[in-house]
């Protein structure tokens, strides 16, 4: 089944590699090598409605096989999952870029800072939270973080709506739990996966 999708698989692989590179460059403090719009333009099939339809159809065909072949279904499910994310990115590239970039911008004004001097990126503020033991100081930093990120609520809403649309195009019922090999992960699974990955952070922030 996968050999019927060589162009889509190759385009998806290339986009995944470029996105991973951009995440690395951001984490390393390096300037971005390309914007999301530029990446999507270079890999149009992986982020298109047509590409998503191809992946979805191939996966549905594999589910109808008798006997089923779980490894093939798993590979196609992974392809669908990535293409859904790429499709969501293509629907709101500007909002997604804003959220991606904000974590390395000096947006947070630490307690006592009257102006932009000394403002820090949100990622640095979250990092420093674990070292603040005084409850009042910690609360002040959390308030500063909330104030810095509040203007991004519109971008977050836009990205969420784009994800919902992409899931609908993939035949996923947003928020519905999915069984392995029976449907691609929906927003419920995505949320749970995010919570699992950030569990240690939540424990650290709430431990005091």
Give an account of the 3D structure.
α3 (49-63) runs antiparallel to α4. The protein contains ten helices and no strands. 65% of the residues lie in helices and 0% in strands. The protein is mostly helical and 208 residues long.
Helix count, per DSSP? 10
Based on helices, strands and strand pairing, what is the structural class?
Answer: mainly alpha
Q: How would you describe the shape?
A: elongated
End-to-end Cα distance, whole Å, is 52 Å
Number of strands: 0
Q: Residue-averaged pLDDT, rounded?
A: 81
Write the layout of secondary structure elements.
Layout: H1 6-27, H2 36-42, H3 49-63, H4 70-91, H5 93-102, H6 122-129, H7 135-149, H8 153-169, H9 187-197, H10 199-206
Helix pairs in contact: 1-4, 3-4, 4-8, 5-8, 6-7
What are the main properties of this structure?
mainly alpha
Task: Give a nutshell description of this structure.
The chain is mainly alpha-helical and 208 residues long.
């Amino acid at each position: 089944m996968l050999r019927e999708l060589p162009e889509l698989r190759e385009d998806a692989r290339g986009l995944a590699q470029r996105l991973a590179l951009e995440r690395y460059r951001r984490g390393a403090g390096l300037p971005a090598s390309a914007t999301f719009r530029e990446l999507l333009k270079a890999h149009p099939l992986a982020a298109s409605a047509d590409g998503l339809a191809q992946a979805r159809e191939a996966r549905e065909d594999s589910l109808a096989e008798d006997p089923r072949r779980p490894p093939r279904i798993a590979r196609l499910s992974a392809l669908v999952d990535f293409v859904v994310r790429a499709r969501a990115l293509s629907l709101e590239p500007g909002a997604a870029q804003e959220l991606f970039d904000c974590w390395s911008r000096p947006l947070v004004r630490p307690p006592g800072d009257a102006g932009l001097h000394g403002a820090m990126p949100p990622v640095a503020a979250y990092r420093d939270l674990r070292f603040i033991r005084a409850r009042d100081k910690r609360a002040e930093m959390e308030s500063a973080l909330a104030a810095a990120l509040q203007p991004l609520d519109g971008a977050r809403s836009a990205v969420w709506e784009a994800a919902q649309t992409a899931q609908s195009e993939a035949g996923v019922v947003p928020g519905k739990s999915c069984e392995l090999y029976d449907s691609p992960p929906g927003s419920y699974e995505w949320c749970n996966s995010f919570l699992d990955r950030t569990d240690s952070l939540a424990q650290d922030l709430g431990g005091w």
